[in-house]
């Protein structure tokens, strides 16, 4: 995938990096990037929220990191957490090829360890937008952890990938029944397939 980016994408051009990855995953080898169909929904939410602070859980190869960072205003900050060093190494190179290093802080480590340290380590008070795309059984515990750490403010947006496939049943049940969130489901398809999947957008009400 990285070779395809370095071969087919233009340095400093995030859209060409996204296109090169999508082409590779469609033609050569499927990979669990959010993909172009759900990616367009992600783009529209990022544009609407116009966040100053973004947290991404699960960088993987940096595809959604590049999509998000390419839409952020100049002073905005995207922190992305990835605990697999091999994926982190690839993602760093993908983000660099897109020319987005200044907007992205890739932290190599586990969400459970780093969410409680966001204030002291990065001077982050609250996140305007959180993109959840890591292990599906960690969406709920990490959301509760973000609440407990005071990282969500009235109006913070959570956007969760794969709420249908592979599915995040305990997260959906919690977020759709909690009086502290207003949720909306965006129906789409699993990346590079015709299988149903979707994104759940939830506003924290405080
Ligand atoms: C738990 N805390 C973590 N902290 C930091 N990095 C983490 C943490 N947990 C995982 N990571 C890191 O986040 C990534 C994990 C992504 C997981 N994603 C998926 O499983 C996933 C799966 C499918 C899928 C659908 C159908 C099918 F037939 C096969 C697969 C589709 C998708 O869009 C997905 O996102 C990375 F790998 C891991 O190191
Ligand atoms: Mg995903």
Instruction: Indicate the percent of residues in helices.
Output: 40-55%
- Average per-residue pLDDT, rounded, comes to 98
Mass-distribution shape? globular
Helices, by number, come to 10
Segments where pLDDT lies below 50 for 5+ residues? none
Biggest β-sheet strands, sense, barrel = 7 strands, mixed
Strand line-up across the major sheet: 3-2-1-4-5-7-6
Total strand segments? 7
Helix and strand succession? Answer: HHHEHEHEHHEHEHHEE
Q: What is the alpha-carbon Rg in Å?
A: 16 Å
What structural class results from the helix and strand content?
alpha/beta
- Strand residues, percent: 15-25%
- Note the gap between the termini: 41 Å
Bound molecules: the ligand CNc1ncnc2c1ncn2[C@@H]1O[C@H](/C=C/CNC(=O)c2cc(-c3ccc(F)cc3)cc(O)c2O)[C@H](F)[C@H]1O, magnesium ion
Keywords: Catecholamine metabolism, Methyltransferase, Neurotransmitter degradation, S-adenosyl-L-methionine, Transferase
Protein name: catechol O-methyltransferase
Organism: Characodon lateralis
Family: Belongs to the class I-like SAM-binding methyltransferase superfamily. Cation-dependent O-methyltransferase family.
